[in-house]
Design goal:
Helix content: 40-55%
CATH topology of the largest domain: TIM Barrel
Protein name: 5-methyltetrahydropteroyltriglutamate--homocysteine methyltransferase
Pathway: Amino-acid biosynthesis; L-methionine biosynthesis via de novo pathway; L-methionine from L-homocysteine (MetE route): step 1/1
Number of helices: 27
Number of domains: 2
Strand order of the largest sheet: 1-12-11-10-9-8-6-2
Radius of gyration: 26 Å
Oligomer: single chain
Shape: globular
CATH class of the largest domain: Alpha Beta
Keywords: Amino-acid biosynthesis, Metal-binding, Methionine biosynthesis, Methyltransferase, Repeat, Transferase, Zinc
Enzyme class: transferase
Number of strands: 22
Organism: Shewanella schlegeliana
Strand content: 5-15%
Length: about 750
């Protein structure tokens, strides 16, 4: 049997790609140096995979910004505003993804949203009705040649045509995206022909869209695409992941593909559905190692479940992670500060390859001494987990009643109390929470962590940064302030470090988008809050001004989704435990005089199951977790929440059920299109649609912001609207932020005169 891998993280175990990208964008290195770093990373990662026994190495999983964007540019699907007079090159990708590159003209960046139900973001392809597709960019083919020159067998990995279309958006008029499929298939045929001319044997086409409940038109598109692509000289491995595709069994079983990859982590039961329908020569790639979590696999249990399959399939069985390892940190070996009992439980991308090797040994040499050692190691991990239960937390969850999830009064009563207390102007201005994490702040944190300065010195300097942030906002004349979060390394990590049952790595970074990386906490036990986490910072900031300063918290659903969570209890149970910890913090903030508290839930939608028929159960417990975190406050305390890029139409009822007094959302890149959901639903509470795209370094003009808010006012009553950026300002510089916020406040004041 073979070992198969769908993709590997590209950032490097020390985030080498991130730092090279940012240096290039700042003009500190030439593009040649950026390419050199990229080659070094690819070659290291290929070597690791080959050393682990992977014969067909994934190529095309590397991207300088996002693999969907790379494919869009390869196909020539480049927005008109980003096309330059020069041929398509790497800077073209950066202008699409960031709105700016070291060369070419600035232009609004393309829309960015979550990739299915993950925290990875992709750049949304923009397609016109007269769209033409052709090979317009060579990166994929160059990397195939690069791998072959090193003596490796390359297996190109690209998103399949139907998933590419499904994830795209139409521009310049409404039309059926599927009308573009014949032209797109022709382009894919050319791509496969190029691969074949390079001597490629296998190509992996990813169709995660198959995990969705597709209508008949999209099902027909799958059939049409793979029937048309079957004429290539290549063997096609059709890969789907993130959920079961058993509901499309008959469709998939009839496709003329040489191999099929199944995600047997999220849906192990689908193995028995597809086994009887496999062709006599068809390969099955069994995705049994979790590509989206960091916990070591129960290899002995996996081997027991696969043992009968081995005899049936023999060499046609490929052992694989469930999905690309993009969602996993790179290498556990460099984690030197983890407690040994926790490190024993973990497996990162490089170690997951080793797990495949161990699983193969268990299947092929089950009675060997090496196999027995693996079994003992698995049992030791299970024993360690069983000893970690916190009975106090478990009992508190069990004692919850329905009343614990409800505010005292309905929103109109609360709104009247809040307006009487704060007396804000029409279209109040605010920001989402964070302000620039400058090199000075990061350097200060690094010195403290290294022990070069004391905690007292560290906090003293952070208080000065906070004071400066408040003064800047007062000078800008923003109505509702924030303290800026200078003390926080990350919106989830900061809280995780102060919660019991949560652990941390040094280098467990994963890519979120572009050069943005996050280091998710490890939820290994029952979660509780031993002490206040934000109260002193909020009190200090509020003491500096008469204007309201929001207390800033991360919500329970987002902490859950943006962590590597334990798998021995349900996600609902974990979210409830976290919600109780956040509730304790909310109540202490209120008692300290903080009257506005923002509980961010940017990851709320990404937890949705891929099948709509499974949504309601998730929405019920996710909404309840948020409500539990916020419901203890009085009417005058205004609860805010923030959500990132999301299609709200299908979840708007659940968002309304969260009953936040104010919700802020990212809408600038969609040009307020996302507000259609709030208009159609007649959303009852207050809304802050973002007018400043903080993911781009470009400064929006007053006129642009006014135009966006005027659009918003046609959809939402103006007295319900707030004016704010799309998201937190942590990743921007003050030179970028202050001009944008000056324009934001000017726009709000002009709108008060024209709309008020």
């Amino acid at each position: 049997m073979q070992l198969n891998n769908l993709g590997f993280p590209r950032i490097g175990r020390q985030r080498e790609l991130k730092f090279a990208l940012e240096k290039y964008w700042r003009g500190e290195i030439e593009q040649s140096r950026l390419h050199e770093v990229a080659r070094e990373l690819r070659q290291t990662h290929w070597r690791w995979q080959a050393d682990a026994g992977v014969r067909l190495l994934p190529v095309g999983d590397f991207a300088f910004y996002d693999q969907v964007l790379t494919l869009s540019v390869t196909l020539g699907a480049i927005p008109k505003r980003h096309r330059g007079e020069t041929p398509t090159d790497l800077d073209t990708l950066f202008r699409i993804g960031r709105g700016r590159a070291p060369s070419g003209k600035d232009a609004p960046a393309a829309e960015m949203t979550k990739f299915f139900n993950t925290n990875y973001h992709y750049i949304v392809p923009e397609l016109t009705e007269d769209q033409r597709f052709d090979i317009d960019y060579q990166q994929l083919f160059d990397e195939v040649s690069e791998a072959q020159a090193l003596g490796y067998q390359a297996k190109p990995v690209i998103l399949g045509p139907v998933s590419f279309l499904y994830l795209s958006k139409t521009v310049e008029g409404e039309f059926n995206k599927l009308s573009l499929l014949p032209r797109l298939i022709e382009a894919y045929q050319k791509i496969l022909q190029r691969f074949a001319s390079q001597g490629v044997e296998w190509v992996q086409l990813d169709e995660p869209v198959l995990a969705l409940e597709l209508n008949s038109d999209w099902q027909a598109a799958i059939s049409q695409s793979y029937t048309s692509l079957a004429n290539s000289q290549l063997k096609v491995l059709l890969a789907s992941y993130y959920g079961s595709i058993a509901h499309h069994h008959h469709l998939v079983a009839d496709l003329p593909v040489a191999g099929l990859h199944l995600d047997l982590v999220t849906a192990p039961e689908q193995l028995q559905t597809f086994l009887p329908s496999l062709g006599a020569e068809q390969v099955l790639s069994a995705g049994v190692i979790n590509g989206r979590n960091v916990w070591a696999a129960e290899l002995d249990e996996l081997a027991e479940g696969l043992s009968s399959v081995v005899g049936d399939l023999k060499q046609r069985l490929w052992l694989s992670p469930s999905c690309s390892l993009l969602h996993s940190p790179v290498d556990l070996e460099i984690e030197t500060n983890l407690a040994p009992e926790l490190k024993l439980q973990l497996s990162f991308a490089k170690q997951k390859l080793a797990e495949l090797t161990k699983l193969k040994l268990l299947l092929t040499e089950p009675n060997s001494a090496e196999a027995n050692a693996i079994v003992l190691e698995c049992q030791a991990r299970r024993d360690a987990r069983a000893e970690a239960a916190n009975q106090q937390v478990i009992a508190r969850v069990d004692a919850l009643t329905e009343q614990d999830y409800q505010r005292d009064d309905a929103f109109p009563v609360r709104q009247a109390a809040q307006r009487a207390r704060y007396r804000l102007p029409l279209l109040p201005t605010t920001t989402i929470g964070s302000f620039p994490q400058t090199p000075a702040i990061r350097g200060l944190r690094s010195r403290w962590r290294k022990g070069e300065i004391s905690l007292e010195q560290y906090n003293l300097q952070l208080r000065q940064v906070t004071k400066d942030t408040i003064e800047r906002q007062l000078k800008l004349d923003i109505d509702v302030l924030v303290h800026g979060e200078a003390e926080r390394n990350d919106m989830v990590e900061y809280f995780g470090e102060q919660l019991e049952g949560v652990g941390f790595t040094q280098f467990g970074w994963v890519q979120s988008y572009g050069s943005r990386c996050v280091k998710p906490p490890l939820i290994y036990g029952d979660v509780s809050r031993p002490a206040a986490m934000t109260v002193e910072w909020a009190k200090f900031a509020q003491s500096l001004t008469e204007k309201p300063v929001k207390g800033m918290l991360t919500g329970p659903v987002t902490i859950l989704h943006w962590s590597f969570a334990r798998e021995d209890i349900s996600r609902e149970q974990i979210a409830t435990q976290i919600a109780l910890a956040i509730r304790d913090e909310v109540m202490e903030l209120q008692d300290a005089g903080i009257g506005m508290i923002q509980i961010d839930e940017p990851a709320f939608r990404e937890g949705l199951p891929l099948k709509k028929s499974d949504w309601q159960d998730y929405l019920n417990w996710a909404v309840n977790a948020f409500k539990l975190s916020a419901a203890g406050v009085n009417n005058e305390t205004q609860i805010h929440t923030h959500m990132c890029y999301s299609e709200f139409n299908e979840t708007i009822a659940a968002i309304a059920a969260m009953d936040a007094d104010v919700i802020t959302i990212e809408t600038s890149r969609s040009r307020m299109e996302l507000l259609n959901a709030f208009e159609d639903f007649n959303y009852p509470n207050e809304i802050g649609p973002g007018v400043y795209d903080i993911h781009s370094p470009n400064t929006p003009t007053v006129e642009e912001m006014i135009s966006l808010m005027e659009k918003a006012a046609t959809k939402i009553p103006v007295e319900q609207l707030w004016v704010n950026p799309d998201c937190g300002l942590k990743t921007r510089t003050w030179d970028e932020v202050e001009p944008a916020l000056v324009n934001l406040v000017r726009a709000a004041k002009q709108l008060r005169r024209t709309l008020g």
